[in-house]
């Protein structure tokens, strides 16, 4: 059989590997999970003038005593929503930024801090446990929620990754009781006012990745009305190797700016 180019060969290999995963053929072993801080949902979209929220989620962290998020965005597209109140004759602006319950069980409580620069389009906020608690908090959970208002048309990254690997400017981080950095990855979110044009971008988040492949695997073997579900890429009434190959062939393609 003549294979048409390297990309075609890799597409076939990737499709077969993914098919094995779909059918339950698993690799034994593997490295432990790395801690992560994630913007969720990964993709957001809303009309100009409306409000939407994103959560900051932590996954698989061990012995976290304190955390901080540095988040940036394009102010021509988004800005943090806020409310105003009078305080001793002055108008105070308060961003709609709330803290989650990840550290709710801290024995001696927590201390929280936040700062917002509306003009430059960034915020820093964080939380630390109080008292002598060397074990910190381990596991996964909800760190906080940020509320945005759409102020203009366009796309933007909701960026928490900046600086996480460039010491000493590690602005998004988690530390343990001994002020040691906890190794972690940060995953940005994306705001798009124009959905992805590709059928293979099943969840319309602006890129073809494992989320789209997972959707194919979840619906593997489906039969029904042609084109009635997005996983039926070629609209033939089946979710099968043809659909999987189509998504695998576009793997890594990105639509967001």
Overall domain count: 2
How does the helix and strand content classify structurally?
alpha+beta
CATH topology heading of the largest domain:
Immunoglobulin-like
Secondary structure: helix percent: 10-25%
Spatial separation of the terminal alpha carbons? 39 Å
**Uncertain regions spanning at least 5 consecutive residues:** 1-9, 23-31
Number of strands: 15
β content, as a range?
A: 35-45%
- Main beta-sheet annotation: 6 strands, mixed
> What is the annotated CATH architecture of the largest domain?
Sandwich
Number of DSSP helices?
3
User: What form results from the Cα inertia axes?
Assistant: globular
Report mean pLDDT, rounded to a whole number: 83
**Radius of gyration over alpha carbons?**
22 Å
Order of helices and strands: HEEEEEEEEEEEEEEEHH
CATH class bucket of the largest domain: Mainly Beta
How would you describe this structure in keywords?
257 residues; alpha+beta; Immunoglobulin-like; Type 1 dockerin domain; 2 domains; four-stranded antiparallel beta sheet; 3 helices; disordered N terminus
Describe the 3D structure:
The chain is of the alpha+beta class. The protein has two domains: 35-191, Immunoglobulin-like (Sandwich); 206-257, Type 1 dockerin domain (Orthogonal Bundle). The protein is 14% helix and 35% strand. The protein has three helices and 15 strands. Strands 1, 3, 5, 8, 11 and 14 form a six-stranded mixed β-sheet that branches. The protein has a four-stranded antiparallel β-sheet with strand order 9-10-4-13, with no helix packed on it. A hairpin with a 4-residue loop joins strand 9 (110-117) and strand 10. Helix 1 (5-22) packs across helix 3 and helix 2 (210-218) packs antiparallel against helix 3 (241-249). The longest helix is centred in the first third of the chain and has 18 residues, at 5-22. The protein is globular. The two termini are 39 Å apart. Residues 1-9 and 23-31 have low confidence and may be disordered.
């Amino acid at each position: 059989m003549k294979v048409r180019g390297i990309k075609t060969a890799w597409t076939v290999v990737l499709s077969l590997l993914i098919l094995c995963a779909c059918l339950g053929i698993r690799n034994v072993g593997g490295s432990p999970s790395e801690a992560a801080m994630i913007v969720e949902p990964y993709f957001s979209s809303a009309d100009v003038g409306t409000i939407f929220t994103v959560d900051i989620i932590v996954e698989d962290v061990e012995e976290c005593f304190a955390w901080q998020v540095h988040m940036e965005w394009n102010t021509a597209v988004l800005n943090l929503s806020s409310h105003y109140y009078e305080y001793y004759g002055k108008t105070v602006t308060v961003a709609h930024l709330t803290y989650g319950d990840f550290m709710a069980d801290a024995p001696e409580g927590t201390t929280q801090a936040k700062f917002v620069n509306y003009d430059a389009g960034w915020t820093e906020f964080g939380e630390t446990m109080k008292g002598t608690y060397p074990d910190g908090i381990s596991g996964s959970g909800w760190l906080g929620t940020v509320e945005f208002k759409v102020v203009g048309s366009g796309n933007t990254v909701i960026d928490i990754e900046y600086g996480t690997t460039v010491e000493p400017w590690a602005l998004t981080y988690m530390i343990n009781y001994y002020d040691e950095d906890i190794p972690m990855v940060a995953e940005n979110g994306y705001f798009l006012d124009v959905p992805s044009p590709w059928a293979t971008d099943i969840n319309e988040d602006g890129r073809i990745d494992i989320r789209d492949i997972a959707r194919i695997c979840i619906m593997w073997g489906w039969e029904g009305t042609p084109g009635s579900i997005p996983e039926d890429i070629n609209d033939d009434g089946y979710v099968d190797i043809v659909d999987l190959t189509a998504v695998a062939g576009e793997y890594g393609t990105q639509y967001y700016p």
